[in-house]
Amino acid sequence: MELLWKPVHIMFLNLIWVLFSLPVVTIGASTTALYSVLIKMRNGKEGKLFRDFWDAFRKNFRQATIIWMIIAFSAAVLTTDVVYFINVGGLAGTVFAMIFLGLDVILLYMSLYVFPMQAVFDNPIATTLKSALFLSSRHFGWTVVLLALAILTAIAVVLYWPVIGWFVFGLAAFINAWIFDRIFRRYYPEEECTQP
User: Fold this and answer.
1) CA nearest 71: which of 108, 23, 99?
2) Whole-model pTM?
């Protein structure tokens, strides 16, 4: 019976995540809350979905929002640099465009891990960012899988939003939560792998 409720829970969490992400500035806190609930669900420790989401959202709001602002600002600057140097052209322009594109990709890899880490580990911002960067390279195979899933989700949203918009983010995050739970268990004792 519990298995039958999982899709309903995922759709409900998808709706909450979308609503709480609408101000855009709250995407970091909303994503952290989503992963907090889903990793608990993965470990059979789910409670009241909305209450757990709201508690995690409030608890992580300040730190997750700062992290989101850092990532969004860095991505904007690096992408602007890539476009600028492409337009400059020539050998120097190409070299600098490739350098900034490489940094953009590293930032993307790190951003895949940072909010799930914020949901699970209680660390300062700098430690969370550095750890996300470390894990994205240490578990590069999983990073490629996570990136592929993110790209497929984005494509599906663009092409089929009216049909799948009510569950696709929750489903992708649910699959990601399974991956992150496997990764994080290597760094924390099992009983500490989910937010209390």
Assistant:
1) 108
2) 0.88
